[in-house]
Amino acid sequence: MVCETLAQVALKAAGSAMEGMPPEAWLWAAAANGWAWIGVIGYLGSFAAWMTILDRMPLSLGFPLTSIVYVSVTAASAVLFGEHVGALRWAGVAIIIAGIVLLGTEDD
């Protein structure tokens, strides 16, 4: 979760820094942007974590648990980028959290 959130936040920062660039300049600017590289490293870390998760728990549990990233990215967007998150979006985040809590309960 941490690596995926880091990747999303870093790529948002990189994308914001390249706003308005013509397409032919964008790729070179992305390659030279430190935030873009942090995003790539975050994705590599996320991949390593995901492979570990798949080794240790059923996919039917592990994959739904990744939805916590929606919660962390929404919160990070509000805090770090000052994005407005309205009441309905926060309600959606609360529903996601409730779903994650339900996943952690035994139903056998």
UniProtKB/TrEMBL annotation:
Keywords attached to this Swiss-Prot or TrEMBL record, sorted alphabetically, are:
Cell inner membrane, Cell membrane, Lipid A biosynthesis, Lipid biosynthesis, Lipid metabolism, Lipopolysaccharide biosynthesis, Membrane, Transmembrane, Transmembrane helix
This protein's major location comes to membrane
Q: Spell out the SUPFAM superfamilies in the cross-references.
A: Multidrug resistance efflux transporter EmrE
Q: Where in the cell is it found?
A: Cell membrane
Check the UniProt entry and state the signal peptide residues, or none. none
Checking Pfam families in the record gives:
EamA
Q: Which InterPro entries match?
A: EamA_dom, EmrE-like, Small_drug/metabolite_transptr
Q: Which GO terms describe its molecular function?
A: transmembrane transporter activity
Domain of life, source organism = Bacteria
Q: Which GO terms describe its cellular component?
A: plasma membrane
**EamA domain span:** 33-104
Residues spanning the membrane: 25-49, 61-81, 87-105
What biological-process GO terms show up in the record? lipid A biosynthetic process; lipopolysaccharide biosynthetic process
The topology of this chain with respect to the membrane is:
Multi-pass membrane protein
What's the protein name?
A: EamA domain-containing protein
